[in-house]
Structure formats: structure tokens, C-alpha cells
Amino acid sequence: MPAICTIVGIYFGCWRRSLWKTEVQLLRVRAMRINGRYLICAAILVAGFLSLGSTSAAVQTITSRSSTSGGYSGNGTATSASMVTCTSATASMGTNYGCVITAPGWSGMVKQGQSIGTSGAGAVKLTCTGQYDFNYGRLDCTAKIDDVACMPEQSINAISAGGGSTAGTAAVKSDALITCASITGAQSGTGRCVVQGPGTSVSLVAGQQTASFGPGAVKLTCSGIYSATGPGLQCGTQISQVCP
Predict the structure, then answer these.
(1) How far is CA 52 from CA 39, 59, 149, 229, in A?
(2) Contact by Cβ (8 Å): 143, 126
(3) pLDDT band at 35; cut points 50, 70, 90
(4) For the whole model, what pTM was predicted?
């Protein structure tokens, strides 16, 4: 009888141990599944943060200052063919100020609110230009570098007058069609849209078109005979592109 009880006791003891092990294994599996869910959620959150970081990195703001007491330039990097915009140019005293931008495929003045396009990746440098009071004045300017912006349709204008000339600029990210849309103020049909862009440099009458090839900057100036006492010569172009 004791032997039978011993055997039965061993059997039930083994069964209980087996059941306990099974329960422990199930708990471990459940824990792994829960941890797996947490790992998946953590991975999603990390991916989200990385995505937010890459989005913010696509746009940079750089600033510059010029003054008699010293100044500094703004420096940034275009990671691809990018749009660089002169977002502000101000002076405490003075006139005729703007941004001077040096970037891949471009070096020159850009008026406030206008943009240029880079021909590819590379360094972007910003300085300010203009007239200001020697004793108290200063120039401040800001530019935005946008690696992803692309405008399918753009209109730019330029003017030539007795007080000076102002060019129009725009950024293109791919092949573009440029149309001389309007010319006013010219005498005897002499007015022209002078267009410079990637792979093109032409003089157009109103209604004529030219094509540019690849990314970069389009610059517009006006040429022709006009009255020195009038409002000057004004011209405009329409730029169309298929954004990548």
C-alpha cells in the first residue's frame, strides 16, 4: 500500500511539476508577445522621430549682417538641387539692399522675396549688400534653403529704368519651358526679354519661348529703348516645369 501511494504521489507530483512548467512557459510566451508589441511600438516611434528629423533638415535658415563694427556671413549646405530664397533684407538706414548668394550654379544678388535654384548639392553662402549709414547703419538679411520645394508654374518680372534695373529670378528643378509673356514701355518694338537659365541664354520678343535643361536658376532682365522720364521698361516671363 505505501508503495502504491508512493507511486501515485510521484505521478501526481510529476504532473504538478509538468503543469507548473507549462504555466511558466505560457507566461514566458505571453511576455515575449507583449515585449514584441512594445518593441514594435518603439520601432514605430523611433522611425517617426527619424522621419521628423529628416523633414526638418530639408529646410535651413541662414542669416548675415554687415555693419561698420563688423559682420558675419551665413553658411549652409544644399543636399540636392535646391531652392534658395532671400526671405528678408533690411537696413536700419539706407537703400538698395538685398541678399548676395553664392551657391552651386549661382553667384549674385537676389532681391527680397525672390529665389534662385542651385545646380546641385554644395555649399551656400549668404552676405548682405546695400547702402547704409557709415556711423550707425547696418544691413541684415536672411535666406532659406529648401531641398525639396518645386513650383510647377512661376511668373517673374524685371524692370529697367533711369533709376536702375532689377532682375527677376526663379528656381527650376527640372527641364522647363520659359515664355516671354509681356513687354511694356519699349519704343518702336525694341523690347526684349533677356533670359538666362540652365542650357539657355536668349533674347525673346513677347510670345516667344525657350527651353532650359536641368536644375538651376533662371534670370530675367529687360532690354530695349525706353523714355528716361517714363516708368521705364518692364517685362515678364512664365516658367513651366514638371516637378520630380
Answers:
(1) 20, 12, 17, 55
(2) yes
(3) very low
(4) 0.74
